[in-house]
């Protein structure tokens, strides 16, 4: 059976050339005579490959030596918990005597995933959750995540929070921060506390490696699951500033919550991400994707291509909107380059749009079950030509 164009939100499309190479590695990894899913994670061939993966991330994102790159499991969801536990431990070591109410956890809530993250922080306790801004407050209907908030809407807690959290691309709601500092939809880095190592956490799950990360060095933790832009599910990538690799047991002695060892950033760093068995196969495929992206020109290459792809889809949505066929679900300026969300207007029109797309060889365009509508994911592996096929279909659809 031939392959279709997969616009799914994750797990999502991977480059075919990588899949073909990975198939060979499944039988024989790097000339070892052992398949990649069978080889010891402590073999010299695999540890060398892991070091290469780390190096590929470091060089393509320009990660400075102040930050460690850690490779783990558990997905973005495990990080919703891990960032709270590790950064509360750090805060405890810095300020042992403060009561929990004076350990602010600042959350910027712009969509379903940052909402899940703040809910987890509340569930874990140990600090005081402060919602810096919730973009639903300024939405069209008062209840949707349809924009990146204006800078003057952010209310940070003060000079020394335990963490400041945001999600760079909200995969379900289709809103993304602009990486142009002069845009009103940029993250307000200039409003962050000064004269301190800011405990800034960015969830980059659905935009990692799709373009350069603004102010990367100013982040305490950046995390991302691999399953959007760079590989299969099962690998989680962390970029952690070294002052956040704290002794969680020393913090627990001072009253912080105990942290499971597999979630403690210091455990991962002290063991070169090999404290326990890593996700060997996802790591392998991700490494092949990263090698390929390095050859193509890295994040700068992808930024250009991804912009062109998104521009084409957004202009088709707008054209359809003018004809009363489509309706964009996010406000101008906040639309994601990775996740384009829109409605097809009219009784039964959405089902017709989806089934027509499937008949034309395109799958994965149904919106998340919590919000409905259409969602087109334009991750790195989706080519410009494949995007053109979708755009032509959209134009045919509204011309009917
Ligand atoms: C932005 C974002 N954060 C977090 C998650 C959760 O990741 P996981 O399913 O790997 O736990 C996702 C998953 O789609 C996501 O898109």
TrEMBL record:
Top-level taxon in the UniProt lineage: Eukaryota
Biological process annotations from GO: L-serine biosynthetic process
Reactions the enzyme catalyzes: 4-(phosphooxy)-L-threonine + 2-oxoglutarate = (R)-3-hydroxy-2-oxo-4-phosphooxybutanoate + L-glutamate; O-phospho-L-serine + 2-oxoglutarate = 3-phosphooxypyruvate + L-glutamate
Gene3D superfamilies tied to this protein: Aspartate Aminotransferase, domain 1, Type I PLP-dependent aspartate aminotransferase-like (Major domain)
Domain Aminotransferase class V: 5-389
SUPFAM superfamilies: PLP-dependent transferases
InterPro entries given in the database record: Aminotrans_V_dom, Pser_aminoTfrase, PyrdxlP-dep_Trfase, PyrdxlP-dep_Trfase_major, PyrdxlP-dep_Trfase_small
Requisite cofactors: pyridoxal 5'-phosphate
Entry keywords, A to Z: Amino-acid biosynthesis, Aminotransferase, Pyridoxal phosphate, Serine biosynthesis, Transferase
Cellular component aspect of the GO annotation: cytoplasm
Segments crossing the lipid bilayer: none
Transferase among keywords: yes
Coiled coil: none
Enzyme class, first EC level, given as a word: transferase
GO molecular function terms noted in the UniProt entry: O-phospho-L-serine:2-oxoglutarate aminotransferase activity; pyridoxal phosphate binding
Functional pathway: Amino-acid biosynthesis; L-serine biosynthesis; L-serine from 3-phospho-D-glycerate: step 2/3
This enzyme's EC code(s): 2.6.1.52
Pfam families reported in the protein's UniProt record: Aminotran_5
NCBIfam families to which the protein is assigned, alphabetical: PRK05355.1
Family to which this protein belongs: Belongs to the class-V pyridoxal-phosphate-dependent aminotransferase family. SerC subfamily.
Name listed for the protein in its UniProt record: phosphoserine transaminase
Species assigned in the record: Mycena alexandri
């Amino acid at each position: 059976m031939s392959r279709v164009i997969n616009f799914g939100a994750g797990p999502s499309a991977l480059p075919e050339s990588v899949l073909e190479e990975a198939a060979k590695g499944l039988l024989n990894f790097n000339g070892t005579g052992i398949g990649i899913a069978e080889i010891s994670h402590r073999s010299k061939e695999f540890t060398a490959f892991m070091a290469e993966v780390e190096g590929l991330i470091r060089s393509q994102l320009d990660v400075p030596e102040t930050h460690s790159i850690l490779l783990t499991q558990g997905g973005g969801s495990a990080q919703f918990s891990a960032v709270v536990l590790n950064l509360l431990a750090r805060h405890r070591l810095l300020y042992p005597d403060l009561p929990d109410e004076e350990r602010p956890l600042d959350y910027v809530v712009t969509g379903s995933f940052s909402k899940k993250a703040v809910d987890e922080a509340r569930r874990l306790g140990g600090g005081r959750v402060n919602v810096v801004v919730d973009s639903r407050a300024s939405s069209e209907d008062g209840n949707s995540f349809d924009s990146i908030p204006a800078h003057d809407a952010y209310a940070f807690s003060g000079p020394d929070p335990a963490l400041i959290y945001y999600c760079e691309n909200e995969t379900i709601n289709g809103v993304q921060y602009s990486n142009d500092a002069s845009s009103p939809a940029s993250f307000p880095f200039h409003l962050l506390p000064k004269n301190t190592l800011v405990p800034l956490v960015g969830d980059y799950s659905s935009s990692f490696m799709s373009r350069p990360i603004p102010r990367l060095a100013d982040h305490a933790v950046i995390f991302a699951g691999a399953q959007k832009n760079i590989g299969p599910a099962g690998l989680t990538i962390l970029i952690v500033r070294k002052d956040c690799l704290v002794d969680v047991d020393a913090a627990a002695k001072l009253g912080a919550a105990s942290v499971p060892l597999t979630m403690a950033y210091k455990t991962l760093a002290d063991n070169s991400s090999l404290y326990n068995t890593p996700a060997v196969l996802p790591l392998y495929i991700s490494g092949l994707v990263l090698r390929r992206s390095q050859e193509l020109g890295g994040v700068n290459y992808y930024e250009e291509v991804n912009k062109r792809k998104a521009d084409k889809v957004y202009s088709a949505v707008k054209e359809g909107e003018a004809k009363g066929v489509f309706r964009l679900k996010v406000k101008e300026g906040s639309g994601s380059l990775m996740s384009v969300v829109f409605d097809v207007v009219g009784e039964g029109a959405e089902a017709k749009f989806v089934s027509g797309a499937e008949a034309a060889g395109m799958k994965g365009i149904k919106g998340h079950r919590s919000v409905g509508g259409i969602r087109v994911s334009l991750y790195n592996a989706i080519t410009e030509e494949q995007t053109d096929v979708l755009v032509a279909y959209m134009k045919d659809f509204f011309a009917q």
